[in-house]
Design a protein that fits this description.
By secondary structure, the chain is an alpha/beta fold. It is 44% helix and 16% strand. It is built from 13 helices and 12 strands. 46% of the residues are buried. Bound molecules: nicotinamide-adenine-dinucleotide (NAD) and 2'deoxy-thymidine-5'-diphospho-alpha-D-glucose (DAU).
Length: 351
């Protein structure tokens, strides 16, 4: 048996592939376009492992998809591939429409053609699992209840609008064509292999380099944080037990203001890698806010717990400690992802 993972060289996708192969003999085919966010080094440990097959390619390439599906005959497609950074979507929304909307459409249609041709005895077991985000629900007022699966879609950024569009396409391919789909809408992830353009890894690598820690606006925006390996276990659970056509919210019950996240990272670094210059919090710098910045996200993850028995294993305290330690233990990985393209982005965003 085989699963096809799109975006498996990115942050969450690579954690998923590594976790999958750590607990299963089932083969994984990873399809990844290796954009700036994709990194084959994340999967380096799998070199020579016959259970893993890496394909460098685009989800928008229909001929490639048809060939991959025909060759590998996966029993499931796990769709992680996306442009994922909100700030980049503000500077250049086109790539988000191309990959997240058009790419998801192409993948869905290829999956439909493949699934339609399967023998009746295996057709019912096929799954298309779409990995999505809580950002499709928009922004919450301070005292509003957390997002449930029935919360209206109110995406506010080009990124979240493109993900909302992809969710709707997935829903329609189920409703109209009967494609056996599952969708997960997850809150903010953090953990190993997180590209240092996102809040937590950016704060860790900037602090270690003695650079400013840029906090947007007043730093009181709230995100709901989940350790990436808990997201991976939620996806495995939904794949195994999720009801067809359903969506499942995934979250860590960890609502935190950005400024508190940054202070926590600083305190952990003070403990684990003290600086001779003094506490890392001295580097905190308030900068211009993100345009259209969503104020608060919070996930109500009771459905996945009630129906499928999933709960996160990590608390924020255990997860963030592991994460900071991982970055301290992997300076070479950090140095290598900070390429010329990375420096160009930093210059553009924070100049
Ligand atoms: P990421 O940006 O780290 O990785 C995305 C991966 O997709 C990269 O390896 C990239 O090379 C690949 N990719 C991009 N365009 C592609 C294309 N056209 N064809 C094939 N591959 C392509 O993203 P991530 O943070 O790992 O997010 C993975 C998925 O999870 C995304 O769909 C994202 O919307 C969703 N998600 C992310 C979070 C989070 O906190 N990071 C939370 C909820 C949901
Ligand atoms: O909620 C899930 C989403 O979480 C995913 O769908 C996205 O793919 C993922 O990138 C993430 O989006 P955010 O915009 O919430 O993540 P980011 O790490 O970019 O920012 C987290 C918060 O920190 C947000 O309120 C903006 C703020 N921030 C971010 C950066 C990069 C800063 O204050 N300073 C910064 O330099």
């Amino acid at each position: 048996m085989t699963i096809l993972v799109t975006g498996g060289a990115g942050f969450i996708g690579s954690n998923f592939v590594l976790d999958w192969l750590a607990q299963s003999q089932e083969k994984v085919v990873t399809l990844d376009a290796l954009t700036y966010a994709g990194n084959r080094e994340n999967l380096a440990i799998l070199k020579g492992d016959e259970r893993h097959h890496f394909v460098h390619g685009d989800i928008g390439d229909r001929a490639l998809l048809d060939q991959l599906l025909a060759t590998h005959q996966p029993r499931a497609i796990l769709h992680f591939a996306a442009e994922s950074h909100v700030d980049r979507s503000i500077h250049g929304p086109g790539a988000f429409i191309k990959t997240n909307v058009e790419g998801t459409f192409t993948l869905l249609d290829a999956a439909r053609a493949y699934w339609s041709g399967l023998n009746e005895d295996i057709k019912g077991d096929f799954r298309f699992l779409h990995v999505s985000t809580d950002e499709v629900y928009g922004s919450l007022a301070p005292d509003a209840p957390a997002f449930t699966e029935t919360h209206p879609y109110e995406p506010n950024s080009p990124y979240s609008a493109s993900k909302a569009a992809s969710d709707h396409l997935v829903r329609a391919w189920h409703h109209t064509y009967g494609l056996p789909v599952l969708t997960t809408n997850c809150s903010n992830n953090y953990g190993p292999f997180h590209f240092p353009e996102k809040l937590i890894p950016l704060m860790i690598v900037n602090a270690l380099a003695g650079k400013p820690l840029p906090v947007y606006g007043d730093g009181q925006q709230i995100r709901d944080w989940l350790y990436v390996k808990d997201h991976c276990s939620a996806i495995r659970t939904v794949l195994a037990q999720g009801r067809l056509g359903e969506t499942y919210n995934v979250g860590g019950w960890n609502e935190k203001a950005n400024i508190d996240i940054v202070k926590t990272v600083c305190a952990l670094l003070d403990e684990l890698r003290p600086s001779s210059e003094g506490p890392y919090a001295r580097l905190i710098t308030y900068v211009k806010d993100r345009p259209g910045h969503d104020r608060r996200y919070a996930i109500d993850a009771r459905k996945i717990e009630r129906e499928l028995g999933w709960r996160p294993a990590e608390t924020f305290e255990t997860g963030i400690r592991k994460t900071v330690q991982w970055y301290l233990d992997h300076p070479d990985w950090v140095a290598r992802v900070q390429s010329g393209a990375y420096r160009d982005w930093m210059e553009k965003q924070y100049a």
